[in-house]
């Protein structure tokens, strides 16, 4: 256990109360386990103190303790550490007590604890001034199925480390200050050992302190180790608490390699014990008979110091030897791996040489191929350069064609817009022509109605004239028979001309929807026919009037008024007919002129559209 000096770590003695310490609990558990196994066993304990790097046996008898105290006053040698030949250490002359129960252990523990060095400081009224090691060794006898007896040995070391302390805060002076320095020195050495084990350094300074030599097997050895750190919750002990926790944290990283205790035969153990007894007897006999070698104490001290130095040197050399053996083992492994690697490399070298020969052949072939490829590459470069030039020219031509195409597209769009406007104009023209045809048909209907009305009126006038003439003809049948014949002939001629005129009008009306050239010709023919008709009618009428004037001279006075009216009526009809003819001729001329303009404009528009389409088609064919 390790911790601050004022923190109690050994636990209570005697019976096991609720606050019993670690040692009483461990002892009780050991004996309870041994009693449950119901086997033959033996338990031995040792209790030593390490004070100022000096080992003291706390279980030595009173006589020996007094003698040791007197010897110490005379500067006698304390107990010494020795190597046991198995990698461990033992304390020469350490008293072993055989116990049979826990109470005996508690009594021995109380007796040894009473001898421990304690002192009062400002931090603890009973501060431990030394380290203590309480060891319990157990031998258990077991029997094999063959009846052979075996001895199994186990050992438990309970270590109480003196508390680390701040000398200035603890108030230690003179001897107490030196004690605190030694305590801290041994703990610092323990810290270096822990650091070396954690960092896997080549040299671990076990021999720098007797404490680390005693704990060597517990630090990185073949045992199981548990560390208990006792700290104070007070803020005034923060530094000691952190130091203790750092110890525990670093010690936790140490990896031990525990080994199961070997079972030895009873005969072997008895043989070892007999050898130890013989050695002790020889020492007792030599001491009693004084037959040993006697040398001065100074020389003995010098030899002992030399022996210790040599033992330390041997231990260091053994440690170095172990390191060297490990290094040699590592080097041997590295050498073996290097040999294997060299063999592998040799095989790889052979394979590589074969590959090199093959690669050389391939290289020569590849060089020839490279020359041919270089020639082909130069040829391809020339072709590519020419191709690039051609592509650049084509790109330029493409840009030009693209600009022309865009211009043609704009022209095409304009052309389509013009075509649309032409279509719209054609539609307008068709609408105008349709309107013209409708107006022409309506006006022709009006003209036909007017002509029919004029004919009806003319017929009425003729009928009235006929009635008047009939009244006069009846009285002058004979005188007017010839005149009547002429009048009838004139009437028939007039009717035939009128029918011809009506037929012409009807034909003109029926063919009004035809071509404009036919309308013009028919209008001209109608005008000529009408003029001829009017001329004929006028001539015939004039003849009739002359004949009537000649024949009716004797009746001039009676017929003057009638003739005047008839003349006026005919004149009115003639004027109306002339006006109607003039109006119709003017109307036809106007329609012919408008139709000619429309036809000419339509032809011009169509020719312009066709020319634009032909130009666009020609340009498109040239561009593609």
From TrEMBL:
The keyword Oxidoreductase does not apply. One of its GO terms (molecular function) is microtubule motor activity. Gene3D superfamilies: Kinesin motor domain (3.40.850.10). Its main location: cytoplasm. GO terms for biological process: microtubule-based movement; spindle organization. Residues 270-320 form a coiled coil. Keywords: ATP-binding, Coiled coil, Cytoplasm, Cytoskeleton, Microtubule, Motor protein, Nucleotide-binding. This is Kinesin-like protein.
């Amino acid at each position: 256990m390790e911790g601050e000096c004022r923190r109690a770590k050994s636990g209570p003695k005697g019976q096991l109360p609720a606050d019993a310490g670690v040692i009483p609990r461990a002892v009780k558990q050991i004996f309870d386990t041994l009693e449950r196994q119901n086997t033959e066993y033996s338990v031995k304990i040792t209790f030593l103190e390490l004070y100022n790097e000096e080992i003291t046996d706390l279980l030595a008898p009173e006589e020996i303790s007094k003698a040791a105290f007197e010897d110490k006053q005379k500067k006698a040698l304390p107990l010494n550490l020795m190597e046991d030949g198995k990698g461990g250490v033992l304390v020469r002359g350490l008293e072993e007590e055989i116990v049979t129960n826990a109470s005996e252990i508690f009594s021995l523990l109380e007796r040894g604890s009473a001898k421990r060095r304690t002192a009062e400081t400002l931090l603890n009224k009973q501060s431990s001034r030394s380290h203590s090691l309480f060891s319990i060794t157990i031998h258990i006898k077991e029997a094999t199925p063959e009846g052979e007896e075996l001895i199994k040995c186990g050992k438990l070391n309970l270590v109480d480390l003196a508390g680390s302390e701040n000398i200035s805060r603890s108030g230690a002076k003179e001897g107490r200050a030196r004690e605190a320095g030694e305590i801290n020195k041994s703990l610092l050495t323990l810290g270096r050992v822990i650091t070396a084990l954690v960092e896997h350094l080549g040299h671990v300074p076990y021999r720098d302190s007797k404490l680390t030599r005693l704990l060597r097997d517990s630090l990185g050895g073949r045992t199981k180790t548990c560390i208990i750190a006792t700290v104070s919750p007070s803020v005034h002990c923060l530094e000691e608490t952190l130091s203790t926790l750092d110890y525990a944290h670093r010690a936790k990283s140490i990896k031990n390699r525990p080994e199961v205790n070997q079972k030895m035969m009873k005969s072997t153990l008895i043989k070892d014990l007999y050898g130890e007894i013989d050695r002790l007897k020889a020492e007792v006999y030599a001491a009693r008979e004084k037959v040993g070698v006697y040398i001065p104490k100074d020389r003995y001290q010098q030899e002992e110091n030399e022996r210790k130095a040599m033992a330390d040197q041997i231990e260091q050399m053994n440690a170095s030897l172990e390191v060297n053996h490990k290094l040699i083992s590592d080097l041997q492994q590295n050498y073996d791996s290097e040999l294997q690697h060299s063999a592998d490399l040799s095989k790889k070298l052979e394979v590589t040489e074969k590959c090199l020969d093959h690669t050389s052949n391939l290289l020569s072939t590849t060089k020839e191929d490279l020359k041919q490829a270089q020639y082909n590459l130069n040829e391809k470069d020339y072709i590519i350069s020419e191709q690039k030039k051609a592509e650049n020219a084509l790109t330029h031509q493409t840009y030009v064609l693209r600009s022309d195409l865009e211009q043609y597209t704009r022209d095409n769009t304009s052309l389509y817009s013009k075509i649309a406007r032409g279509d719209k104009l054609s539609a307008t023209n068709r609408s105008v022509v349709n309107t013209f045809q409708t107006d022409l048909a309506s006006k022709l209907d009006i003209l036909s109605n007017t002509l029919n009305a004029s004919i009806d009126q003319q017929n009425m006038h003729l009928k009235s004239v006929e009635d008047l003439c009939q009244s006069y003809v009846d009285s002058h049948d004979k005188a007017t028979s010839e005149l009547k014949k002429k009048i009838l002939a004139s009437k028939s001629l007039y009717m035939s001309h009128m029918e011809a005129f009506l037929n012409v009008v009807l034909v003109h009306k029926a063919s009004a929807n035809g071509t404009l050239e036919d309308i013009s010709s028919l209008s001209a023919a109608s005008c000529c026919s009408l003029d001829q008709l009017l001329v004929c009618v006028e001539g015939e009428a004039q003849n009739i009037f002359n004949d009537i004037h000649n024949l009716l001279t004797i009746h001039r006075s009676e017929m003057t008024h009638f003739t005047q009216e008839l003349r006026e009526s005919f004149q009115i009809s003639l004027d109306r007919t002339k006006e109607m003819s003039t109006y119709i001729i003017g109307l036809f001329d106007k329609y012919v002129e408008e139709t000619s303009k429309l036809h000419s404009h339509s032809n011009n528009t169509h020719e312009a559209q066709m020319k634009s389409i032909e130009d666009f088609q020609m340009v498109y064919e040239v561009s593609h």
